[in-house]
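ESCALATION

Customer reports they have been waiting on this structure for their group meeting. Please prioritize. Original submission:
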Amino acid sequence: MNQTRTFLLFALLAVAYLLWTQWEQDYGPHPVAPTTTSTSTEASNGAAGNAPAITSGNGGPSGPAQLVTVTTDVLRLTIDTRGGSIVRAELLNYPVAPRTKKDPNPAPIRLLDDSSTDYYAAQSGLVSADSAAPDHLAMFQAAQTSYTLTSGQDALNVDLTWTDASGIKVVKRYTVHRGSYVVDLDQQIDNGSGKTWDGNAYRQLLRADRPAPVYTNFLQRISDQSRYGFFGAAWYSPEQKFNKLAFDKFAKEPLQHPVTGGWVAMMQNYFLGAWIPPANEADTFSSAVVDEQHAGPRYAIRSVGPQISIAPGQHANASAQLYLGPKLPNVMQSVAPGLDLTVDYGMLKIFAEPLHWILAQLDKLTGNWGVSIILLVLLINLATFKFTNAQFASANKMRKLKPRIDALKERYGDDRQKVQQAMMELYKKEKVNPAAGCLPLVITIPIFYGLYYVLRDSVELRQAPFFGWIHDLSAADPYFVLPVLYTVVMLVQQWVMPVQPGMDPTQQKMMKFMPLMFAVIFLFFPSGLVLYYVVNGLCRLLQQYWMMRRSEAAAAKATA
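Update from on-call: job pushed to the front of the queue and completed.
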């Protein structure tokens, strides 16, 4: 298969992919508002065994509530004393926009958010059928409204206290750690009443669907890679492994599953919130659609623990971990089994994961992801050098056969079958294989899509600068320099290696428009991906030129 057909197939696949993703965004299924109320929905999905239903995340008893701020070196959390829920989580090392001279300190990403349009909270509580228990609506008390992890301090405890006239006391303790995105939760239950306390602990993530983004132009809209990442719930169990639950599936396919050693999460591009129960605890994972009357539907995924029985005068603890941070595979592997699977490369995982690993190792050496991409190109070209040479050699031989092929076409006229038979006999006689060098194509297509997913879903490449005008390798080139450079490389390749014999007129016409087609396609792709293909195109052009010079030298020597 010659190089021009390789480019043609590549372009058609790329265009088909763009059309498919755009169709999914515009016409694919979207969440619909539930027809049930929050009480009935959660009563049907929220109970584990005989545990009572878990109520909605908004509303509840009236009374003043406080917001408690907890700051570490990587997180800034806001805890609402109503329910003791974490209602805001800011990732201090991940700004919303790249740092520039005009804005050297942009606001950090807010993962959890208590705004009505982008609501996302990490809630927890206790439920009991016949005893007092603080759910995520109960009013807690905090000793102070601000906590900061100071220099030299590795961990910080934040206690919220709830008491009941019956003698039940609950202390909800959050523990944060230096350099960590893991928050430990410990609900300490003291039974000071005169009867046994029976209940369940639960943890849930409640969020609204993402608001529709506002774009100023079509290019900005289609080049926004965050539109194509999965946004919704996920869960993991050792038996069922990693599962995603899109918001439009909540009402149709509600989750209700017993799990030991798993986790529940809400996913989005680059970042993750996940509740992780103790590994040996038998929980029930469930989902629910909460009908907020004025704010619209919200989606809950929760983990309800086993029944806890506490005799009078005794106490017990219910613990869990909450991960609020970037989707860093090495970090998440150490937090919980399978949590790294939330870096979701889909069907191209087999290609994307090795590419990510190689780029990560190269980045350790270079300190620049753009330079790492260039080195990746060179490594791949070295690995495929022999096969690419075979492709160019076959193309050169076929080019030399062009006069004889043209003569065959004149001899047989419109009889295409005879033309093809005669061409195959000629190829066999001259020991030319038209399919030689197909391996570069087999490698090129998976690398293209694998690297695309790495650039789209790997948080390490988010806002990763290269040099000059490229401040974010995961975003489109703002000045279209790289797409133009690749177009120039393609034009030079066409000039150096003319259209191969045997290509029908329709294909020849399409090849003339290939550079323009690629220029348009690469306008929307991450600049890191276009950088890869600019360097790869230059490498192939140099190799192609070297092969032609070598072939000409060999021909001149043979005639001398």
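Sent to customer with the following note: The mean pLDDT is 82.
Escalation resolved.
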